Amino acid sequence: MTLADTRAAWRTLETSHPPTYYIPQADIAMEHLSPNSRRSLCEWKGQARYWDVEIAGERIEAAGWSYPDPTPSFAGIAGRVAFYPEPFDEVLVDGEQVVPQPGGFYGGWITSKEAGPFKGIPGSRFW
Fold first, then answer.
1. Does pTM top 0.85 for this prediction?
2. Across 109-127, average pLDDT
3. Domain harbouring 51, CATH code
4. Mind spelling out the 3-state secondary structure of the chain?
């Protein structure tokens, strides 16, 4: 089952991070997403809200997040959803399997086109 397929993702890059892709809800099977009560605050993007994903009876809590009302600099991601790649069987960018950004907290997608080191590896907390 394909959860999302898009050619219209908004790609963000932050210092010491691989890209994060924000996907338009029109390109996501939104019937598999439900709001999660988790929130976080990004000093650049604003307040994030999280989404649970349920596929084939399996629930993945806080597998995605969005910024319903981002800061003006990130207005392009408003309402789009980003996903952590780790909990999914297959996450592809242009046919290439994505490697999750290390550390568990960050949601970057690493392909052969990105070069690290990336935030999330041991010793990178204060980069």
1. yes
2. 89
3. 2.170.150.40
4. CCCECCCCCEEECCCCCCCEEEECHHHECHHHEEEEEEEEEECCCEEEEEEEEEECCEEEEEEEEEECCCCHHHHHHECCEEECCCCCCCCEECCEECEECCCCCCCCEECCCCCCCCECECCCCCC
